[in-house]
Inverse folding.
C-alpha cells in the first residue's frame, strides 16, 4: 500500500500544478499565450493519466466509475473522434495548430483528466483543496490585472481591455466567470458547515467576498460582453433556484431575493441610461450600449452563424471535423463581411462550432453533457450537496452555456469545465448509478511488475515525444526564423529549414511565415542569391502544403502572392485563381488577382474583375478604391473620378491610387491627395517629399522648390541634400 500512496501523492502533485497553467507565458514560442499553456497541460495530463493508470490497476477503488455524466462525456468524445476521422482534414482535426492547439489531441487529454481527477480526488476535503488552489491563482491573476489597469504592466493585446497572462480579454473573462461561481460555492459551503448565524460573523466569508469582488472587477474590465452577460444570467438562475427551492436556510433565501432585485435594478437602470454621457464615456459600458442587431460585431456574428448553418446542411450528420470551419467560411463567405477578419476559424459561438465540427450528432452529444450534469445535480436520491450548492453549480453551467453563445473555448476554460463536471460526477452520482470495475490485479505478480507497469510507462514516455517534442521544438525554431539577423536573411532560412525538419503539426503556420518572409525579401535589398534560395525553398514547401490541404483557399492565395511578388505572374495567377474558386466571393482574394493582372499588363481583365468585385458589395470602400485603381490603369479617368469623389479626403485613397496616377503620369491628380495628408500631419517629411515629386512631375518647379524648403525647416539635417535638389530643379534638371 506504500506504493499506492506514493502514486496517489504524485498524482496529487500533478493535479495541484494544473491550476497554475494560466500563468504561463512562453515568449520563446510561437503564440506565446497559447502554446506554452497547452504543452504544459498536455505533459501534466500525460503524467497524471500514466500514474493513475498504474494506481487503478493496483487498486480497484481508483478505477473509473460510470454514470450518466461520464457516459455523456465518453459518447461526446467518441462522436467527435468519428467526425474528425471522416472530416475534410483529419490531420488538422487531430492536431489543430499553434494558434488554437485544440483538436482531438486536446479532447483525449481532457477525457483522461476527467477520469483521473474524478477517480483520485475522492474526498470533499481534497476537492476543496484543489479548487481553492485554483481560486488562489485567480487572485494572482486579478492582482496582475490591477497592475495592467494601473499601467504598470502592459495589456498584451493592446487597448484598454485587461487580459492578464492569457493574452486575450475574452479568455480572462471566461476564467473569472468560472472562479466567481466557484468562490461563491465554497463560501456558501462553509456557511452550511458553520451554521445559520455565522455567515456574516465569520471573517473568512469576508475574504471570500473580497476575492469575488476582485474577480468581478477583472471580469468587468475585460469588457467581454458574452462572459459578463453569462455571469448575469448564471447569477439570475442561481438566485431563482435558491428562492424557489431553499427551505432550510432563510438567510441564503433572503440573499437570493436581494440578488434578484439587484439584477432587475441594474438591468433596468442600464437600459434607462444607456444613452447617457456616463455610459457613453465608459469604455466598458459603451460596448454594451452599442449592442444592436445592426452593430458591426453583432451583424458579423449573424453572418458567420448563417455560413455555419450552410455548412451544416452540406454535412449534417458528422460535420466537417474539428478545426475545419475555415473551409465552410471560405466556401460560403458573405461579401458583406468585407470589413471583418478574412480568415475566421471559429464561429464565435461554441454550439455552432460543434455543429460544424460534429454535425447533428456532435452538437447533441455536447448538449447532453449539460443535461447529464444538471439532471444529476438535482436528482433527489442521497444527495450530499445542499440546494444552494446545487443552485450555484447550475448557475455556473448556465453562465458558461450562455457565454458560449458569443465566444469560443480555450485550454483554460476547457480544463475548468471538465474539472467541474468531474466534480459533479464524483460528488453527486449515487452508488446505485455507479458501475465500478471490481476485478483486481495481483500487483505482486511478475505479469504486473514486468509487463503492465512497463507498458504504461512506455506509453507515457511515448506520449511525451509524440504529442509534444516535435511541436515544441519547431515552435522555438520558428521564433528564431522570424528574428532579424545582422549577417543577413540566410540565417532566417536556416531556421525555417530547421523548424520544418521536425515535421510537426505546426508545419502549416511555419510555411505561412516562410511565404510572408519570401514576399518581403523579394522587394528587399537582399542579395539575388538569398532571394533565389528563399524562393526555391518556399516553392518546394508550398507544394507539400498544397498536397496536404488542396482545398484550402488560404494556401493557394499565399502561393499565388509569392509568385506574383517574384514577378512570375502567370504562375501566381494560377494559384490566386484556384484560391478564388475555393472562396469565390471573398474580395481580398480578388484584390490579389487584380494586382497580378495590372502588374502583368492585363488591364482590361483587371478592370472587368474589379467591376465585378465592386458590385459584390458596393458599400466596401476597399473595393471602390481597387476598382478606381483599375480604371486609372485602363485610362478611364472619368470613371475613376466618379468612384473616388465620395471618399475624397479619407484614408481610403492611399498609395495604390497615388501609384496608379503616377503610372499614368497624372501628377495633377496626386497633388490634392498628398496635400490632404499634409493638412492632417504637417510634420510628416515623407508626405512633403511626395508632394515635391508630384509638383516636379506636373512641371510646377517653384512649387517643388518651396516644398523642399519646408522639408529643410522641418528637418534641418536634410539641408545639404535639399539644397542640392533645389539647385538641380532650378537648373532645369529632375534630380
Amino acid at each position: 500500500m506504500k506504493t499506492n500512496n506514493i502514486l496517489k501523492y504524485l498524482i496529487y502533485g500533478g493535479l495541484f500544478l494544473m491550476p497554475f497553467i494560466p500563468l504561463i507565458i512562453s515568449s520563446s514560442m510561437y503564440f506565446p499565450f497559447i502554446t506554452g499553456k497547452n504543452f504544459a497541460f498536455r505533459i501534466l495530463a500525460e503524467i497524471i493519466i500514466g500514474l493513475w493508470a498504474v494506481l487503478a490497476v493496483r487498486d480497484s477503488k481508483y478505477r473509473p466509475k460510470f454514470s450518466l455524466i461520464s457516459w455523456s462525456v465518453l459518447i461526446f468524445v467518441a462522436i467527435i473522434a468519428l467526425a474528425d476521422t471522416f472530416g475534410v482534414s483529419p490531420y488538422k482535426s487531430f492536431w489543430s495548430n499553434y494558434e488554437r492547439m485544440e483538436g482531438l489531441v486536446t479532447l483525449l487529454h481532457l477525457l483522461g483528466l476527467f477520469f483521473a481527477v474524478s477517480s483520485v480526488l475522492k474526498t470533499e476535503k481534497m476537492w476543496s483543496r484543489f479548487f481553492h488552489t485554483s481560486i488562489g491563482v485567480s487572485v494572482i491573476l486579478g492582482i496582475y490585472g490591477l497592475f495592467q489597469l494601473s499601467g504598470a504592466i502592459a495589456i498584451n493585446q493592446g487597448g484598454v481591455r485587461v487580459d492578464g497572462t492569457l493574452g486575450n480579454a475574452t479568455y480572462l473573462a471566461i476564467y473569472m466567470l468560472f472562479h466567481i461561481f466557484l468562490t461563491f460555492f465554497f463560501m456558501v459551503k462553509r456557511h452550511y458547515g458553520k451554521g445559520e448565524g455565522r455567515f456574516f460573523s465569520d471573517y473568512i466569508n469576508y475574504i471570500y467576498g473580497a476575492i469575488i469582488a476582485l474577480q468581478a472587477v477583472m471580469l468587468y474590465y475585460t469588457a467581454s460582453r458574452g462572459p459578463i452577460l453569462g455571469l448575469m444570467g448564471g447569477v439570475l438562475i442561481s438566485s431563482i433556484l435558491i428562492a424557489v427551492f431553499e427551505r432550510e436556510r432563510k438567510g441564503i433565501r433572503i440573499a437570493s431575493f436581494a440578488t434578484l432585485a439587484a439584477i432587475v435594478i441594474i438591468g433596468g437602470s442600464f437600459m434607462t441610461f444607456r444613452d447617457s454621457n456616463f455610459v457613453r464615456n465608459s469604455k466598458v459600458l459603451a460596448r454594451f450600449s452599442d449592442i444592436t442587431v445592426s452593430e458591426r460585431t453583432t451583424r458579423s456574428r449573424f453572418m458567420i452563424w448563417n455560413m455555419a448553418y450552410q455548412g451544416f446542411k452540406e454535412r449534417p450528420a458528422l460535420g466537417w471535423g474539428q478545426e475545419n470551419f475555415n473551409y465552410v467560411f471560405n466556401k460560403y463567405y458573405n461579401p458583406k463581411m468585407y470589413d471583418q477578419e478574412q480568415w475566421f476559424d471559429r464561429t464565435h459561438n461554441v454550439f455552432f462550432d460543434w455543429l460544424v465540427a460534429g454535425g447533428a450528432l456532435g452538437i447533441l452529444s455536447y448538449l447532453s453533457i449539460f443535461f447529464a450534469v444538471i439532471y444529476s445535480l438535482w436528482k433527489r436520491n442521497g444527495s450530499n450537496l445542499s440546494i444552494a450548492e446545487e443552485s450555484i453549480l447550475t448557475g455556473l453551467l448556465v453562465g458558461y452555456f450562455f457565454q458560449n453563445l458569443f465566444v469560443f473555448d480555450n485550454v483554460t476554460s476547457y480544463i475548468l469545465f471538465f474539472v467541474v463536471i468531474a466534480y459533479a460526477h464524483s460528488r453527486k452520482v449515487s452508488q446505485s448509478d455507479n458501475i465500478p470495475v471490481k476485478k483486481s490485479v495481483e500487483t505482486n505478480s511478475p505479469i504486473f511488475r514486468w509487463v503492465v507497469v512497463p507498458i504504461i510507462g512506455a506509453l507515457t514516455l511515448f506520449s511525451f515525444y509524440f504529442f509534444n517534442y516535435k511541436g515544441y521544438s519547431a515552435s522555438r525554431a520558428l521564433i528564431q526564423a522570424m528574428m532579424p539577423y545582422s549577417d543577413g536573411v540566410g540565417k532566417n532560412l536556416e531556421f525555417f529549414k530547421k523548424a520544418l525538419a521536425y515535421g510537426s503539426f505546426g508545419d502549416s503556420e511555419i510555411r505561412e511565415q516562410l511565404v510572408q518572409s519570401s514576399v518581403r525579401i523579394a522587394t528587399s535589398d537582399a542579395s539575388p542569391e538569398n532571394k533565389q534560395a528563399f524562393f526555391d525553398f518556399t516553392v518546394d514547401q508550398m507544394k507539400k502544403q498544397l498536397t496536404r490541404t488542396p482545398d484550402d483557399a488560404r494556401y493557394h492565395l499565399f502561393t499565388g502572392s509569392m509568385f506574383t511578388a517574384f514577378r512570375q505572374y502567370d504562375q501566381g495567377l494560377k494559384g490566386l485563381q484556384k484560391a478564388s474558386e475555393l472562396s469565390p466571393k471573398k474580395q481580398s482574394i480578388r484584390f490579389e488577382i487584380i494586382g497580378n493582372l495590372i502588374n502583368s499588363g492585363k488591364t482590361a481583365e483587371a478592370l472587368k474583375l474589379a467591376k465585378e468585385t465592386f458590385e459584390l458589395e458596393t458599400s466596401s470602400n476597399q473595393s471602390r478604391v481597387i476598382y478606381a485603381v483599375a480604371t486609372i490603369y485602363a485610362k478611364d479617368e472619368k470613371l475613376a473620378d466618379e468612384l473616388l469623389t465620395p471618399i475624397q479626403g479619407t484614408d481610403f485613397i492611399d498609395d495604390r491610387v497615388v501609384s496608379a496616377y503616377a503610372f499614368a503620369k497624372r501628377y495633377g491628380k496626386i497633388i490634392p491627395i498628398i496635400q490632404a495628408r499634409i493638412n492632417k500631419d504637417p510634420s510628416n517629411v515623407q508626405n512633403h517629399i511626395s508632394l515635391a515629386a508630384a509638383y516636379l512631375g506636373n512641371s510646377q518647379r517653384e512649387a517643388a522648390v518651396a516644398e523642399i524648403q519646408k522639408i529643410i525647416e522641418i528637418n534641418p539635417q536634410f539641408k545639404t541634400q535639399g539644397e542640392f535638389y533645389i539647385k538641380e530643379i532650378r537648373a532645369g534638371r529632375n534630380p
